[in-house]
Inverse folding.
């Protein structure tokens, strides 16, 4: 059919394969059509031979141009799925990654059915804290960020998903959180890309995602992990756990850093792509 949904869909895939791998181009194109047509996967394939609605052609053209300018689809449609929840996004927060879903999954599986106190440092969109609270209903979850704009996004996501998280504006590099506040778990996915690697990143990341949440000084790549380790020494309960996401090139350095602060059972955990992505440790106070 000359003006079918399928024709427009395949045309978008074709254009996007000039700047993205084919599988990614297909994935992005499906998100676009799901958004524009308000179809799920089954509805899309059932209706792919029907006419594409003419009243949204201009909207499709605008999205297409923004995509070809490397703007991430998640920022264009202002949403993403993460751990079975929908999250609002804007350019003040990072786009959540599948690796971070693995971190959330690890924490949930290792701490099920407990009323633990948990803090997420550098929460961004709130995806880690909100997803943990959604699955560990009796947990008392806190989340911090240095960015007021990021906290507004995180609060909106907690509200829209009907999840209760305590948000605090705080800079982990100079934390002002009351030392009386204690946690069973500290979790963080802090900035960890050395500034020297900026030119290696895809344009859709380097040109659009917030640099505050991405980059660290090239000569001090572990700056956030040092501060998180110090924070956790003050705020973790006895046998409390610290979980962090890390740069694959610095996993061993983070492990050795945590050991130097007295953490025990420090483990590097690989992600689904078999890259060293997470470091988990325990703090014994006695």
């Amino acid at each position: 059919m000359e003006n079918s949904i399928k024709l427009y869909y395949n045309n978008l895939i074709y254009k996007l394969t000039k700047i993205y791998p084919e599988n990614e181009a297909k994935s992005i194109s499906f998100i676009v059509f799901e958004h524009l047509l308000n179809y799920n996967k089954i509805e899309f394939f059932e209706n792919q031979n029907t006419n594409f609605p003419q009243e949204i052609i201009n909207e499709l053209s605008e999205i297409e141009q923004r995509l070809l300018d490397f703007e991430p689809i998640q920022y264009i449609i202002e949403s993403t799925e993460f751990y079975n929840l929908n999250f609002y996004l804007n350019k003040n927060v990072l786009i959540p990654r599948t690796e971070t879903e693995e971190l959330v999954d690890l924490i949930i599986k290792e701490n099920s059915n407990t009323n633990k106190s948990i803090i997420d440092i550098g929460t961004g969109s709130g995806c880690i804290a909100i997803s943990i609270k959604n699955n560990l209903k009796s947990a008392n979850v806190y989340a911090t960020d240095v960015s007021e704009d990021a906290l507004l996004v995180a609060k909106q996501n907690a509200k829209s998903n009907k999840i209760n998280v305590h948000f605090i504006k705080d800079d982990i590099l100079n934390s002002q959180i009351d030392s009386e506040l204690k946690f069973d778990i500290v979790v963080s996915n802090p900035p960890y890309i050395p500034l020297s690697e900026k030119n290696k990143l895809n344009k859709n990341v380097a040109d659009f995602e917030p640099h505050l949440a991405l980059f660290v000084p090239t000569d001090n790549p572990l700056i956030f992990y040092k501060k998180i380790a110090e924070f956790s020494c003050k705020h973790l309960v006895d046998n409390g756990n610290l979980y962090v996401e890390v740069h694959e090139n610095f996993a061993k350095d983070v492990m050795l850093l945590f050991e130097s602060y007295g953490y025990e059972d420090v483990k590097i955990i690989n992600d689904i792509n078999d890259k060293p992505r997470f470091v988990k440790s325990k703090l014994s106070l006695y």
